[in-house]
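Annex B. Sample input.
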Amino acid sequence: MRRVYENLELIRKYKGITKKKMAENANISTMTCTRLLSGKTNLSAELLRSFSSTLAVDDIDTFFDDNLTDSVISQD
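Annex B, continued. Sample output.
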C-alpha cells in the first residue's frame, strides 16, 4: 500500500502540474511543497484539500486509496 504523499505525487506527475504551481495555489513555498510531496513533512488536511483542488480531484479519499489513485492516473 502506497502512502498518501506517494499517491499525491503520482497524480501530480500524471496531470503535469509542477510543484511550483502546487505551492503557489496552497500559498506555501516551493521547498515546503517539495518536503510535503516527498513525505519529509506531514500533510495537514487543509493542505491536502488545497492540493486536491489544484489537481482537480473531487474526493480527498482518492489519495488514501491506491485503487482510486490508479483510476485517476489511468483515465484517458
